[in-house]
Amino acid sequence: MAQGHTQILDGYRVLDCSIAMAGPFAAQRLGDLGADVIKIEPISGEWQRHKPAGNAKGKRINVSFLSLNRNKRSLAIDLKSAQGKAILLDLVRSSDVFLQNYRPGVAARLGVDYETLKAINPKLIYVSMSGYGESGPYVTRPGQDLLLQAMSGAMLSVGRDGEPPSPAGQYLVDAVTAYTAFEGVLAALLHRERTGVGQRIEVNMLDAIVAMQMQEISVHTVGGMPQTRLGEPHAHPYIRAPYGVFKTQDSFIALSSPPLALLAQIVDAPELAQIDEETGVWNRRDEIFAITQARLLTNTTAHWLAAFEAVDIWCGPVYGYADIAADPQIAHNGTMIEYDHPTEGRVRTPGFPIKFEQTPSVVRRGAPLTGQHSREVLKELGYDDARIDALIAAGNVGEERL
Fold first, then answer.
1. What pLDDT shows up at residue 76?
2. Which of 49, 125, 229, 373 keeps 20 to 30 A from 297, CA to CA?
């Protein structure tokens, strides 16, 4: 793994006190840009270490934790003990960012709320992530991805009318919230560079997933257009037909709003050419979908991709994860990266979506074991071996070695 590489956030220290996906993912992105991210976790390890998605357990580190915690060091401490809390406060003095996604009220009970930490380090960027906000009628509700997807309105934009709403097949709200927090930290650091002033940032999952639907919700609230699912599985409530995924003779194809006259010619469906391009593509969407679907069933995906691409009709294959891993554009872009992890072996995961010409992201270290860097971090704070050994023996600090 690369060492000594100059990156944009070199010299910045981030304390990651978050769990699950949204917070750790945001902190990992900061680590990918070069920040020294110290993951503060309990002696027993962060929650995600014990709850792998898909039951992908790994060797000593499960795949969920591995995927969300590269480029971090782990410090395992008991924050409920006076000694553990003292260590955290020592770190705050020399840190730039503190990120937590505790349930509302927990940070204050632990004595790591913004006002307490600001008194120690006025320049601190303090990020508080929550499900629904820091106050309000839903403040005690669980901030879980599926529940926020359901509440966001997005599920009623896909699928057939009368059928159950359709959730995304990803932890969509967690990912959007992570990138929202990541963006907020970068903006706050820029503000601090200009003014010398730190600040608190609040990010919640509900606002993040609603803001992501800027165009769709505005079409409803400003344009007055109803959000209506159709009889056929049209892929978006505010786009003309045909728009969606269609079955072919051997698999599926995605088709994006081609001119009807041209589509009619390619798929041999003259009835499509008789439908008005201005109004019919909206008020006859189910009919257009059904005609298109029937014609696409007569040949293979490869046939239709070639035929559509030859006349510049927007289309594409429908991939699974195995297809992504084998795609030539993915390979060309370097979308997936490989590196050697000390316990998990050769690892292949999604890499870095932003390409910096001068300061490219690198994997400096893989996801750590619980407390793998406890001793290293405490030595940086000036603790000697005897004191560290005593803290570990007392159960205030955890250390797992390679």
1. 98
2. 229
